[in-house]
Design brief:
Blueprint: E1 17-24, H1 33-43, H2 54-80, H3 87-106, E2 111-117, H4 124-133, E3 136-143, H5 150-164, E4 172-175, H6 183-200, E5 206-212, H7 216-220, H8 225-239, E6 247-252, H9 265-274, E7 279-283, H10 292-308, E8 313-317, H11 324-339, H12 345-369
Parallel strand pairs: 1-2, 1-3, 3-4, 5-6, 5-7, 7-8
The structure holds the ligand C=CC1=C(C)c2cc3[nH]c(cc4nc(cc5[nH]c(cc1n2)c(C)c5CCC(=O)O)C(CCC(=O)O)=C4C)c(C)c3C=C and fe (ii) ion (2 copies).
Ligand L6N33NVT is lined by residues 25, 27, 40, 49-50, 69, 73, 86, 88, 145, 149, 151-152, 212, 214, 225, 253, 255, 286-287, 291-293.
Length: 370
């Protein structure tokens, strides 16, 4: 038996392809307690996600959490489930398709974009295998998390490298760790807010930028997530020319009993409603795709909370999902990553020559304009 994965019928003249792996958290296969238990058991056992000594955490996870949580969470999933599956996965599939066609139009050589989820299906192993079969010798891994966090980005890095350790011929690799301040991403967010204002108005509305939370302990131990969320929020507020009293940042999706990053989204909305804020518009810039945490927690639970406490109008501004400007931002990230790659193999020699000619022409045209 071969210890490492490889092709026995390897051809030296096989055409190379650029591989792009997009990935997100993952989701259960069905909105049922059984499927949710399987998903949570994998997700919550990841030591990057829950940093508690293993024997103690095993007892809590299997003795308490996996007994009671799946039923409640399955019910929440059922409330957002679409005909053909989980919103997160459906959106990720559309993002994959749109990104691949943008990259094929933009880059001179052949490109394959595959989709793998950190937990559940389609797995990262399947997605990487697809790239290996497509002869991708250079791979850009693009986790669809704008903000770096050890619990998401580093966990993806662990999983990807664990898989690649089993390849005989490991590919060149670029791993995108964050894009929280990329201009095109901020502009896409700002445009989505402006479009919402055009469609629904904005009279006296306060904008809440809600990000997924983390245990406060992770920030104290050096995780840059908190700072990156603050930077995104500041840049978005600047792009929208908002005054300080027109917006705020908050953190949602608390889990467990310890302190998480503050201020909390639910507490903020409750306080706003109680102190006379009548209208809120909520955007979740850290979620590249709508999912349980935006569609159920924000758009259902937090909306009900705000209205119960005296708020009059609650509006959720959808995640960037497969918006054209979002796909353009992701395309730019991939193009930036590959542009520094040294020339080699069939993919690059001709392809880079074409790309360079294109760039020269553009540079000349720009020079002529000036
Ligand atoms: C200790 C627990 C958790 C940490 C840390 C955490 C970080 C984190 N998560 C996301 C993005 C998503 N999380 C989602 C669901 C979800 N998250 C946790 C727990 C932690 N997340 C749980 C237990 C769940 C499942 C639902 C539940 O039981 O409440 C999702 C949605 C998935 C879906 O199927 O729709 C996303 C997306 C980020 C970005 C992040 C760190 C910054
Ligand atoms: Fe989460
Ligand atoms: Fe949640």
């Amino acid at each position: 038996m071969n210890r490492y994965l490889g092709e026995t019928d390897f051809h030296h003249d096989a055409h190379e392809r650029l591989g792009v792996l997009i990935t997100n958290l993952g989701t259960p296969t069905a909105p049922t307690p059984r499927a949710v238990r399987r998903y949570l058991a994998e997700f919550l056992w990841d030591p990057r996600v829950v940093e508690i000594p293993r024997p103690l955490w095993w007892l809590i996870l299997h003795g308490v959490i996996l007994r009671f949580r799946p039923g409640r969470v399955a019910h929440a999933y059922a409330s957002v489930w679409e005909e053909d599956g989980s919103p997160l996965l459906n959106i990720a599939r559309r993002q994959r398709e749109a990104l691949e066609s943008q990259l094929l139009a933009r880059l001179p050589g052949p490109v394959k974009v595959s989709l793998g989820m950190r937990y559940g299906e389609p797995s990262l192993a399947e997605a990487l295998e697809e790239l290996r079969q497509a002869n991708a010798r250079r791979i850009v891994v693009l986790p669809l998390y704008p903000h770096y966090s050890a619990s998401t980005t580093a966990s993806t890095f662990d999983a990807v490298t664990d898989i690649l350790k089993r390849w005989r011929w490991v590919p060149s690799l670029r791993f995108v760790t964050h894009y929280h301040d990329q201009h095109a991403y901020i502009e896409a967010l700002a445009t989505s807010v402006r479009e919402h204002w055009e469609a629904h108005g904005r009279d006296n509305a306060r904008l809440l930028m809600s990000f997924h939370g983390l245990p406060r302990r992770y920030l104290d131990q050096g995780d840059p997530y908190h700072c990156q969320c603050h930077k995104t929020a500041r840049l978005l507020a600047e792009a929208l020319q908002l005054n300080e009293d027109q917006w705020q940042l908050a953190f949602q999706s608390r889990f467990g009993r310890e302190e998480w990053l503050k201020p909390y989204t639910d507490a903020t909305l409750k306080e706003w409603a109680e102190t006379g804020v009548e209208r809120v518009q909520v955007i979740c810039p850290g979620f590249s795709a709508d999912c349980l945490e935006t569609l159920e927690e924000i758009q259902m639970q937090n909306k009900a909370l705000f209205l119960e406490h005296g708020g009059k109008r609650f509006e959720y501004i959808p995640a960037l999902n497969e918006r054209t400007d979002h796909i353009e931002a992701l395309t730019q990230i991939v193009c930036n990553e590959v542009s520094g790659w040294p020339e080699a193999g069939n993919w690059s020699s001709e392809a880079y020559a074409t790309m360079r000619q294109g760039r020269l022409r553009r540079a000349k045209a720009l020079g002529a304009e000036r």
